[in-house]
Amino acid sequence: MNRILLMVLRNFPKVPGTYAKLCKYAKNPDQYTEKEMYEHIRYILNMVVDSGNINLRIVGKENFPQENGFIMYSNHQGLFDVVAMVAACEMPIATIFKHEIKDLPFIRHIAACTNSFPMDRSDDRQSLKVIQNVTSEVQKGRNYIIYPEGTRSKNGNEMLEFHGGSFRAAIKAKCPVVPIAVIDTYKVFDTKSSAPVDCQVHILPPIMPEEYEGLKAAELAEIVRNRIQETISSNC
Fold first, then answer.
1. Pair type for strands 94-98 and 54-59
2. Each residue of 184-224: pLDDT tens digit?
3. Domain chopping of the chain, boundaries
4. Domain 3-235, CATH class in plain words
5. Cα–Cα dist 116/104, whole Å
6. How many CB atoms lie within 10 A of CB 216?
7. What pTM does this model have?
């Protein structure tokens, strides 16, 4: 059986109510607290994990900064990556996501509740505006997860090159940078099987602003990529 179908069947009685509540939040997000909306999103996405025969191992939760206003940079393997990150992080987080999926109902509602931004990587001006918006939001105390490969890797645990441009947001915001390594998350939705699957999320120690002061975005990108690669190599 397809894993997504399995998730839907197991959660079918809960879907109408949970989706209706999400729509209510997304319609008027200013009327609710960020924590209230995020906890509901976590509830939904944890249902996905619990019902999908997924053994998600989370390592290093103690490495999350104690104060809001940080950016996580992660390798990207597939749709399950964001689900895994929300399951791992109790503090509200937002993300940058592909412009092509911005109008999908579930994606659109979560974006509205979390202040996530769609990015059109074919439009340099729009991409720059998104980075500027993220910088501003982080300075206000929001947390973001960014995938600097720009797209998911189609080779499992092999990473693509990191684009340095997305690291400008951290440098301008002067915020903690948290490297995230995801391992085997591609197996969740990239196979037609619903058999039990193991995957991992590793939250690595944050790189503080004073540690990367004076570095160019490309240099910071390389440091983060190397740390993620070391973690993947050690745990595959």
1. unpaired
2. 999 998 878 889 999 999 999 999 999 999 999 999 999 99
3. 3-235
4. alpha beta
5. 14
6. 13
7. 0.93
